[in-house]
């Protein structure tokens, strides 16, 4: 249940605890009871650093957790600290480090997707007597993310192209060819109760708007009334069953939704506080290809072009497209891979990561599957000295709990991309502590702000932070901190990780 309203006791406690960590130097005292604020002393040496980190990880409230830490000096390759470096742990979204580093190294920063529009008939008196075929390339970026929020820009451009050809009606079907990828739209062993939410959006070679519908909730003016719902674009693709109720201003907004598997129907329920601002949320779709075609069809209608029929190519088993005999009307190139990787890492975008992994399978094995994408990644792992048989990867984003890696492996891939000619592009893709991305709100007030470049990760009882620290002593450190099975609020684990990287930044030797 999504809760937007009163601040919980746990959150308040976290804020109090974290505010203590904004002092200059950090050291956890020995009486590390849950909630004890840390004391801070100057960190003089590597021996002092190791002692202080030992105090942090040996706190009583972490006794049931499995903690892996590995830290190396990039220039000297000295191991600064290591705890359980070869223990297999769930990495959560740190799995994106494996996906993006290998993609950057193997495909290069200038790689672009190309989505094409074909026709297989002739135009007579403003009517296309034939079909339009949209050939998907796996492009995850057909959305409003990079063009001022205009989700439909591509389809509006294509509508203009059709009008320039004199087409006012499609006397056929708009067909979506998504066969470049396999039909496994979900990652291995993803939890069924995640599938309504944006972070578990389906993967497809033909995708639109992150394969999610943008839903907006407007409170009713009257308590007890039904809040108003609308989507953008307003194409009514999803059947939305509204079971929301507006509650008094001194109550809380608490709502959730559930999309029925296999259907484009969602039930949204809960309470919306009167007088609150419009709420935006994202609901996944069941058939990304049909969703993409519906957006194209909607854009054509808005531009005065009639197109009554759309179809996923899988619904036309006898159709075997021969593009050499079709007329290419338009082709769309995506933004470069360098920008796609930035989106994946800065905001931890699962859908982009999954699309990219299957793209690797297409480019190196002519098969758009996660399995072949992982095989391609492992080619790069071998090049940088990792045994791929020791790494257990099942998806590209880290949403599955079946991914298992070690902190030593993470540091090795980070070192590998650091040695790559395009390393600065990868560096620039990482969130910066206290500045942007998923760690914008962390390390605030610490002198490590702006000097920690790291990828976060989270699934239930799993927290990860891995990346680089540019320390005040001029050294650059590569680090990975994975915590599995912790019993305390995640905010305390964040605090623990932040303490360690701040100590690392303050190393004097």
What is the SS-derived class? alpha+beta
Number of helices: 11
Strand order of the largest sheet: 3-2-21-20-19
Strand portion, in percent?
15-25%
pLDDT averaged over residues: 93
The helix content, as a percent range, equals 25-40%
- Please state the CA-atom Rg, rounded to the nearest Å: 25 Å
Query: How many domain modules?
Result: 2
Main beta sheet strand tally, sense and closure: 5 strands, antiparallel
Query: Strand tally, please?
Result: 21
Low-confidence stretches: 6-42
Q: Shape, please? A: globular
Cα distance spanning the termini = 49 Å
Describe the structure in your own words.
By secondary structure, the protein is α+β, with helices and mostly antiparallel strands. The chain has 2 domains: 65-109 and 338-505, Beta-lactamase, CATH 3.40.710.10; 114-333, no CATH class. 28% of the residues lie in helices and 23% in strands. The chain has 11 helices and 21 strands. It has helices spanning 9-20, 46-57, 95-107, 153-164, 288-302, 337-347, 350-365, 370-383, 407-418, 423-429, 490-505, and strands at 2-4, 66-73, 79-83, 114-119, 122-124, 127-129, 132-135, 169-170, 174-177, 212-218, 228-232, 239-247, 253-259, 265-273, 279-284, 306-307, 310-312, 327-333, 452-459, 462-470, 476-484. The strands form 5 sheets. It has a 5-stranded antiparallel β-sheet with strand order 3-2-21-20-19, sandwiched between helices. A 5-stranded mixed β-sheet has the order 17-9-7-4-18, covered by helices on one side. A 4-stranded mixed β-sheet has the order 1-13-14-12, with no helix packed on it. Strand 5 (122-124) and strand 6 (127-129) form a beta hairpin. Helix 3 (95-107) runs antiparallel to helix 6 (337-347), helix 6 (337-347) runs antiparallel to helix 7 and helix 6 (337-347) packs parallel to helix 10. It is globular, with a radius of gyration of 25 Å. The two termini are 49 Å apart. Residues 6-42 have low confidence and may be disordered.
